[in-house]
Amino acid sequence: LAALMAVACTKNKEAAVTATIEGGAEKEIVVAQLAVSQMRIVDTLKADAQGVAKGKIAMAEDAPNFYYLVYNGNRVASLILKPGDKVSVKADTLGKNVTIEGSEESVLLQKYQKDLAAVSAEFAALSQKMAAAVDANERDLALELNQQLSKLYVKHRQNTIKMIMENPYSFANVQALYQSIDNALPVFSAENDYLLAQRVHDSLAVKYPNSVYLKSLMSDIKQRQNASALADQISKAEETSFPNLILPDINAKMVELQSLEGKPFILMFWTISEASQKMFNNDLKELYKKYGSSGLEVYQVSMDADKTAWATAVKEQQL
Hints:
Layout: H1 2-12, E1 14-22, E2 28-35, E3 38-46, E4 52-58, E5 65-71, E6 74-81, E7 86-92, E8 99-101, H2 104-135, H3 139-166, H4 172-176, E9 180-181, E10 185-186, H5 194-205, H6 212-236, E11 246-248, E12 254-256, E13 265-270, H7 276-291, E14 297-302, H8 307-316
Helix pairs in contact: 2-3, 5-6
C-alpha cells in the first residue's frame, strides 16, 4: 500500500508534454525551466520520424512553473505547467507558428508574448524612422513619430493591464509584469506600478503561498515600495543649493558646476544611445545661441561609459 501511494504521489507531481515540431524529425527538444533568475535544463526529449516528442516533467511543488521548449537554440514554445497537466504543442523550428492545447495558462502566456512581439516590431520601426528624421533635422516629423511611439506604449500598457484584470488568477500575469518593449522599454516601470504587482501577487498567493516565483515577486515589490517612499521623501524635501559637480570635459579639463553660480544655467543629463537626445541638443544650441550673450550657460553631463564615443558625438554635434 505504501509503495502504491508513493507511485501515485509521484504521478500527481508530473506534467505530460507532447510536442510536434515541424521540421524537427528525429531531433532533440530541450526542456528548460525558469528558476526565477536563471534557466535550468530539466530534460531532453527525442522526436520521432514525424517530429513528435513526448515526455513527463517531474515537479517538486504543486504551484505552476515556467518551462520552455528549445530546439537548436531557439525557444519554440513557452509553457506554464502544473502537476497533472497534459499539454500538446505544435510549432515550427523557429517558434513562429505555435499552437498549445491542454493548458489555459500557457495559452494566455502565448497571447501576452504574441502581443508584445507585435508591439515591439512596430515600436522598432517607428524608432528607426524617428532617428532618421532627427538626423535629417526634420523636427516636425520627429515630434510626430515620438507622439506615435508614446501612444503605442500607452495603448499596449492599457491592454496588458486589462488582460491582467480579466485573468486575476493566472500565473501568466507574473511574466506580464516584466515585459519590455523591444527589449529596452519596461512596460511597468512607473513609480506606483508596484501596486499592480501587489495585486497580482495577492491574487495568486491565496492558492500558491509557497511559490518561489511569488516570493521573488514580493521581494521586488518591497524594493519598489522603498524606492517610492524615497521618491516621496525627496519630493517633500526643502529646496537647497545645487550639489557641486566636478567633471572632465573632452579635453580632460575639470569643470565645476559651482563656477556657474550666479548665472542662469541649464543642467542636463544625457546619453548618446538615445536618438532623441540629438534633437534636444539642437534645441539647447538654439537657446544658447539666443541667450548666451546674456549669460546663459549649459552644463551637460554624459551618462556614457565610452569616452571616445561620447567625445565623438560632442564634436559631431558641435556642442
